[in-house]
Design brief:
heterodimer, A: 2 domains, two-stranded antiparallel ribbon, 15 helices, 6 strands, B: alpha/beta, four-stranded antiparallel β-sheet, 14 strands
Chain lengths: ~425, ~300
C-alpha cells in the first residue's frame, strides 16, 4: 500500500498534471457554455417567434378580415374563400403559438409535450390507416419508426413533465433514429433540424455521449496519467532505478504504478464528466434524470414465438424508453470498463515507446481502427467504445446480434483489459532502464 | 559469508563487451575504489552488481544472497546519480518513502538528514536543489537502512570542498563502523585519502591493487632560505624533488623521518614557515595503467 500511496503522492505533486487537469476542466466547461449559448439562442429565437406571432398574426387576421369584407361586397367569392381559409389557418396557428407561449413561460412542459404527442400519434394512426408515412422532407419520407418513437417520447415527456431538449424544428420535434434513410441535402437538413442541445447538465452529457466525447476524455486521461513507468525510464529521468535498489518486489511495484495511473485516469474521466454538471449549476441546473432515452428492441417475435426476423421493419420493430438516470448509470459502468481497456493498451504501449504523444497517437489509431475497420462484433472490444449505441441497443438491432449488449461488453472489455495488464506485467518484469 | 561475490560476470552493451568475465570477492569490511576513465563501464559494473542491468553471464551475490533477490537491499544500498530523483517531490518525500519501505523507525528520516547536513532544505522540492544538495539527498537515501554494503557511483560529483570533506568523513566513519564501501570516482586525490584498495577497470577487466605499495608521501616545506635547506637535506641523503617557486622545497620522505628533517633544518638556523603533507599513489598508477605503461609487476 505504501508504494501505491507514494505513486499517488507523485501524481498529486506533478505540476504538469495539474496544468493538464485545469486545461481539461476549462475546455469541458467552455464546451458546455458554448453549447449552452447556442441552445439559448435557439430558445430565444423560438420565444421571439412565439411572442412576435401574438402581435403579427392578429394584424394579419384583421387585415384579411377587412379584405374579406371588401371581397364579399365586390362579390369576389373565390377571393373571399381564399381569405376565409387564410384567416382560419392564422387563427389556428395563433392559438397554437399562444398555447405554446403560455405553457412554456409557465414552465408547463407536460402540456406542450401532450399536444405534440397527440399530433404525432394522430399522424401515426393516419399513416397506418393509409399504409403510407405522412411525414416527409424534400420528398424523402421520415421513417415510421422515427415518427412512432417521437410520439412515444412526447407521451413520456407529457407524463413526467420534464423539460425537452432544445431543437431547431419545434413544430414537429422528431427524435432522430438510425432507421432514417435520408440522403444528400435532405440528410443535411434533417440532421440540422433534429440536432438536439442539452442546456441542463445531465442533458448536455446525454447530448455529447454519442459524439465519442468519453473515449476522447479517456485518451487524454491515459496521456496524462499512463506514463508512470515510461516517464521514469528516460535518459534524463531514471526514477525507476531508485526502486531497483530497494527491497521492493516487482509485482508490488507494478501494481502500485499501474493501479495509481488507472485510478487517476478513472477519477480524471469522472471529474471531467462532472464539469458540465457543476457548470450547469450556474445556468439552468442539472436537469431531470427522468428524461426518456430511446432503447432499440428490434424486430419482435412472431405470435408463434418464432425467432426474430433479420430484416428491419420501421412499422413494427419494437422499442422502449428508459430514464436518463438509468442510461447514465450504465454509461458510467461501461466507461469504467473502457478506461480499464484503453489504459491497459496505453500502459503496454508505454513500456515499448517512451514518448507519451506517440503512445496517445497509437492508442487513437488502434481505437479508430477497431471501431471503423474491424467488424462490429460482440467479440470486438472496440465495438463497445461507442457506448451510446451499445447501451441503446442500436448496434444489436443494426447487426441483428443480441450479443452486442452491455453485459457482454463489460465482460469482454474487462477480459481484454486483464489480458493486456498481464502482458504489461510480463514486459515490466523484463523492463530495464539503460 | 562473502560481502560481495562477483563470478564470471560479462556484460555486452551494443555489441561491445563492457565487462569481460569479471571476478571479484570482498570478504572483509573496508573501502574499495573503482577507478577508470569515462565510459569504461564503472557505472555499468555497479548497475550489474545491483541487478539494475542484467548480466549476460555470471553471478553476483551480495551479503550471501543473489542480487536478483530484492530483499538483499535491506542490507545493501546504492548511491546512484541524481537522475533517479523526482524533481517534483521534496527530499523528505524521498526519505520518508525509503524509510517506510525499509521499515525504519519514524525518526530515522530526521536523524539521517541531520547526519548528512540537509535538515535545512529537507522540505524543499528537489527541483530547486543544487547539484551538491542532490548529492546529499542521495547519500541520505543510501544511508537510511544502515547498510552493511554501500555502493556509491561518483559520490563526490558536484560537491563543494566542505561537502567533499563531510562525505569523506562519513565514508571513513561508516567504514570504521563495519560498513563495506565500494565507490567509483574520478577524484583520485579524494580516493587516496579514503582508501588504498583500488579496483582499476580497463578493457572490461578488473584489476585489484593494494595502493600501500605505491603510496608516496611528499612534504611541501616552506622555509626562510630555500637553497640552504635544499642543500643540507641533499647532503644528508634526502630526496628533495622539487623546489617550488613560493620559496619552499618538496621533500619525498616517510613520516618517520619528518622529525629528523625538521631538526636538520633547525640546526642550520633556518625558520620553518609551513609544512604540508601530500600522499599520492593512485594518480601515478592511474597514468601508468591507462597510458599503457607496464604495471603488472606491482599488482597484488
Amino acid at each position: 500500500m505504501k508504494h501505491f500511496l507514494f505513486e499517488c503522492r507523485k501524481m498529486i505533486k506533478k505540476r504538469s498534471i495539474w496544468i493538464a487537469l485545469i486545461l481539461s476542466v476549462v475546455a469541458m466547461s467552455g464546451y458546455y457554455f458554448f453549447n449552452y449559448s447556442v441552445a439559448e439562442r435557439l430558445n430565444t429565437n423560438r420565444m421571439f417567434d412565439l411572442k412576435n406571432s401574438q402581435i403579427e398574426f392578429p394584424k394579419k387576421i384583421a387585415q384579411d378580415r377587412l379584405e374579406l369584407e371588401a371581397a364579399k361586397k365586390a362579390g369576389d367569392s373565390a377571393k373571399a374563400l381564399d381569405l376565409e381559409i387564410s384567416i382560419n389557418s392564422y387563427e389556428n396557428m395563433l392559438a397554437d403559438k399562444k398555447f405554446d407561449l403560455n405553457h412554456i413561460e409557465a414552465g408547463n412542459w407536460a402540456a406542450v409535450a401532450q399536444k405534440q404527442y397527440e399530433e404525432l400519434n394522430r399522424d401515426v394512426a393516419i399513416s397506418k390507416s393509409q399504409n403510407y408515412p405522412v411525414h416527409s422532407m424534400m420528398e424523402q419520407q421520415v421513417s415510421m419508426f422515427t415518427v412512432r418513437a417521437s410520439a412515444e417520447e412526447k407521451r413520456m415527456l407529457a407524463e413526467t413533465g420534464v423539460e425537452p431538449l432544445v431543437q431547431i424544428n419545434t413544430i414537429t420535434s422528431f427524435h432522430p433514429t438510425f432507421y432514417d434513410r435520408f440522403i444528400g441535402k435532405t440528410l443535411e437538413i434533417w440532421e440540422s433540424s433534429t440536432k438536439r442541445y442539452g442546456m441542463p447538465g445531465f442533458y448536455f452529457l446525454y447530448q455529447i455521449i454519442p459524439a465519442f466525447v468519453i473515449p476522447y476524455i479517456i485518451l487524454i486521461g491515459c496521456f496524462v496519467f499512463g506514463n508512470t513507468v515510461s516517464s521514469e525510464a528516460t535518459k534524463k529521468k531514471k526514477g525507476l532505478n531508485m526502486y531497483a535498489v530497494l527491497p521492493v518486489n516487482r509485482p508490488k511495484l507494478f501494481f502500485a504504478k499501474f493501479g495509481s495511473g488507472l485510478l487517476f485516469t478513472l477519477l480524471f474521466v469522472f471529474l471531467i464528466l462532472c464539469v458540465p454538471l457543476l457548470s450547469s449549476l450556474f445556468t439552468v441546473g442539472v436537469g431531470s434524470l427522468q428524461f426518456p432515452v430511446l432503447m432499440y428492441d428490434g424486430p419482435g417475435e412472431s405470435l408463434l414465438g418464432l425467432k426474430k426476423a433479420n430484416i428491419l421493419n420501421e412499422w413494427t420493430d419494437e422499442f422502449h424508453f428508459t430514464t436518463l438516470g438509468n442510461y447514465l448509470g450504465i454509461v458510467l459502468l461501461l466507461t469504467a470498463a473502457l478506461v480499464f481497456l484503453m489504459y491497459s493498451v496505453y500502459f503496454l504501449l508505454s513500456l515499448f515507446f517512451k514518448n507519451p504523444s506517440v503512445n496517445a497517437a497509437l492508442l487513437l489509431i488502434a481505437t479508430f481502427f477497431g471501431i471503423t475497420v474491424l467488424p462490429k462484433s460482440p467479440f470486438n472490444p472496440f465495438t463497445y467504445v461507442d457506448l451510446h449505441r451499445v447501451i441503446t441497443g442500436e448496434f444489436a438491432v443494426a447487426q441483428f446480434n443480441e450479443m452486442i449488449n452491455v453485459t457482454n461488453g463489460l465482460l469482454l472489455v474487462g477480459a481484454f483489459g486483464l489480458v493486456l495488464t498481464v502482458l504489461s506485467y510480463v514486459q515490466f518484469r523484463r523492463y530495464v532502464v539503460e | 559469508m562473502g560481502i560481495l561475490s562477483v563470478k564470471g560476470v560479462t556484460k555486452v552493451y551494443k555489441g561491445h563487451k563492457v565487462l569481460d568475465n569479471i571476478d571479484l570477492t570482498i570478504d572483509a569490511p573496508g573501502i574499495w575504489a573503482l577507478v577508470g576513465p569515462n565510459g569504461v563501464g564503472k557505472t555499468t559494473f555497479l548497475n550489474v552488481v545491483t541487478n539494475i542491468l542484467p548480466a549476460n553471464s555470471g553471478t553476483v551475490e551480495l551479503m550471501g544472497k543473489s542480487n536478483k533477490d530484492s530483499a538483499v537491499f535491506k542490507e545493501v544500498a546504492f548511491l546512484q546519480d541524481n537522475t533517479v530523483l523526482f524533481d517534483y517531490l521534496t527530499g523528505y518525500d524521498h526519505l520518508k518513502y525509503i524509510s517506510d519501505v525499509q521499515k525504519m523507525p519514524k525518526d530515522r528520516v530526521k536523524e539521517v538528514a541531520e547526519y548528512v547536513g540537509m535538515e535545512g532544505y529537507l522540505k524543499k522540492t528537489v527541483g530547486n536543489y543544487s547539484l551538491g544538495m542532490k548529492q546529499h539527498l542521495l547519500l541520505a537515501m543510501s544511508l537510511i537502512n544502515q547498510p552493511k554494503l554501500l555502493l556509491l557511483d561518483e559520490p563526490l560529483n558536484g560537491l563543494d570542498p566542505t561537502s567533499a570533506i563531510l562525505m569523506r568523513k562519513i565514508l571513513l566513519e561508516l567504514a570504521g563502523s563495519g560498513t563495506t564501501i565500494l565507490l567509483s570516482s574520478h577524484n583520485l586525490a579524494e580516493i587516496d585519502r579514503v582508501t588504498k584498495q583500488i579496483l582499476f577497470l580497463k578493457d572490461g577487466k578488473l584489476t585489484q591493487v593494494d595502493m600501500h605499495q605505491f603510496e608516496d608521501t611528499y612534504y611541501d616545506i616552506l622555509v626562510s632560505d630555500q637553497e640552504r635547506a635544499k642543500r643540507v637535506l641533499l647532503d644528508n641523503g634526502y630526496q628533495v624533488n622539487v623546489a617550488n617557486e613560493s620559496g619552499g622545497i618538496r621533500l619525498h620522505s616517510s613520516s618517520e623521518q619528518l622529525d629528523n628533517v625538521i631538526d636538520l633544518i633547525k640546526s642550520e638556523g633556518l625558520q620553518i614557515l609551513d609544512i604540508q603533507k601530500e600522499k599520492t599513489g593512485s594518480e601515478k598508477l592511474y597514468k601508468e595503467i591507462f597510458s599503457g605503461a607496464p604495471y603488472e609487476k606491482n599488482l597484488v
